[in-house]
Specification:
By secondary structure, this protein is mainly alpha-helical. It is built from ten helices and two strands. Strands 1-2 form a two-stranded antiparallel sheet. A hairpin with a 5-residue loop joins strand 1 (234-235) and strand 2. The longest helix has 58 residues, at 169-226. The relative contact order is 0.07.
Amino acid sequence: LMLSAAAGFLGVTVTILNVYLTERERPGAPPLTWDFADPRAPYFAAGLGTSVLSGILIVICALTLRYNIWVPWSWEHLTTGFAIYAVAVLYCISKWHIAKFYGLDPQEVWGVDTRAGEVNLFAAHIFQVMAVLMFMPIRVHILWIVPVFAAVAIFAVHISVGTGYPDNRWTTATAICFMHFMNFQGAWRHERYCRERFLAFRRVMEQDQELEVASTIAKALHSMVGTSSDIVVMLDKDFGVMHTDHTHDTYFGRKVVGIDFRQLLVKADR
């Protein structure tokens, strides 16, 4: 989350600052009054808000890592919420879309053809969702909301304000949604693999604990029986003699490991 917030802070801050300086120096550009009747005002407001939010998240993450505060927070939900916000704000800091939201010609508002910026928007849209699905440690029962929201957002924007390339409107939206679906499938399969691996590891640990307990009990019984017997013989399931040493060989007068114990007994004791 901290890395995502840092990337968002740097990317949005540099972009918004560059556009703001360009607008101030653009010949014939109307003065920026910070009135929401001007479509440039919400553009810069959204960018500024994103920079501030990203900065706050960076500070929170840094303090949590350094001083272990806010640890009980649901970081999965917090990261998911930030990812949804990041997808939504893309359309607010898109020059073409923000002008279309106001029903204006983007070229008249910004003085340049802004349709090419839509390609960058789609690239950022795909990258953000893919990064969240593939690299964020969020369980899929929470994570699914991100690709679903992204798919709904792109179709809603295409229907409401259109696109700078109307001939490819539905092809582009469908392709992006398909990529989100495939990325989510990858996240789901990765989580399933991790769960299976965790369960297998836990079973191995449980078996090791059971073997350790059984070994401890066996040693205790061996010691207890050894105090009241001349010799202790351990047998396998087929009555074969196990774990012999010099004491056993001396007692029986020969090597007895692997021999059926019943052959060592007199007929009356069998």
